Amino acid sequence: MSEKRLSLSPARFLSARRRHRSAGLVVLLFGLLAVGSAYAAFAPDNAVADNSAQSQQIEEGKKLFAVGCSSCHGLNAEGGGNGEGKMAGPSLIGVGAAAVDFQVGTGRMPAMQTGAQVPRKTPAYTQAEIEALAAYVASLAPGPAVPAQESYDISKATDEQVTRGGELFRTNCTACHNFAGRGGALPNGKYAPSLMNVDPKHIYEAMLTGPQQMPVFSDQVMQPEDKRDIIAYLHALQEQKDPGGFGLGRLGPVSEGLWGWLVGIGVLVCVAVWIGAKGVKAKGAKASE
């Protein structure tokens, strides 16, 4: 047997060695090692840096949440309020980063006191802190993400898109916000806020998440381009001038008619009283003569 091996040429001997049943496994291991080495050399620096930055942001958001939000929403965002003077906040698990960015970015959260409606006010957190809070809540469960800027960018909106946005707004939104987006009253002390001078991102997030009593217009219910057209329409309304000088809230003919009665008729009554008083004085002066 040994003489037969010695009689083989070097090429045939190596070929026989490569046909060993474990040779395929060895080649596979060497291939995986080579691919892993190449990936480690070129890719993971950025990946590890991104993961590290995201983890740090989530951890920062968790700390902010524990200090400013957990008293109402629970330490783990499971919902709070136990009848011991704490405000009952809903669970935030699954609401997504968009809901947090809207509520905290518009100053509605943290709420100062309970009430039928949480009003918009100056935000209590910086933009970096808002992003950290949103990242933490988003890490708890899947939910709507903060929309990309191109989703609500209306800088290149055409007249056709503005007109289409007006049709969509009148169909879906005027029942609460009135046809001019100035807001309106709702039952039980609630109200639909004015949409004037609101950041386009926050309008998009409100449609996406449905804050308070507002219905949710998800991307499956209303396409992103439809939301963008509505925002373009609202911006056009905001830029529109009032031909009469006073908008009167743009509440329609009722408010305009009421203004006409109170001011117009009121002025006429005052003029009539003045004329009557002048006439009485004139008669009294003639009688004294």
Automatic annotation (TrEMBL):
Binding residues annotated for heme c 2, in chain numbering: C173, C176, H177
Transmembrane segments: 258-277
Residues binding heme c 1, per UniProt: C69, C72, H73
Catalysed reactions, semicolon-separated: a quinol + 2 Fe(III)-[cytochrome c](out) = a quinone + 2 Fe(II)-[cytochrome c](out) + 2 H(+)(out)
Enzyme class: translocase
Keyword Glycoprotein assigned: no
Listed InterPro entries: bc1_cytC-su (IPR009152), Cyt_c-like_dom (IPR009056), Cyt_c-like_dom_sf (IPR036909), Cytochrome_c_Oxidase_Subunit (IPR050597)
Gene3D superfamilies for this protein: Cytochrome c-like domain (1.10.760.10)
Processing after translation: Binds 2 heme c groups covalently per subunit.
Segments forming domain Cytochrome c: 56-141, 160-238
Protein location: Cell membrane
Region forming the signal peptide: 1-40
Xref: PANTHER family: CBB3-TYPE CYTOCHROME C OXIDASE SUBUNIT FIXP (PTHR33751), CYTOCHROME BC1 COMPLEX CYTOCHROME C SUBUNIT (PTHR33751:SF13)
Subunit structure: The cytochrome bc1 complex is composed of a cytochrome b (QcrB), the Rieske iron-sulfur protein (QcrA) and a diheme cytochrome c (QcrC) subunit.
UniProt name for this protein: Cytochrome bc1 complex cytochrome c subunit
Organism: Kribbella antiqua
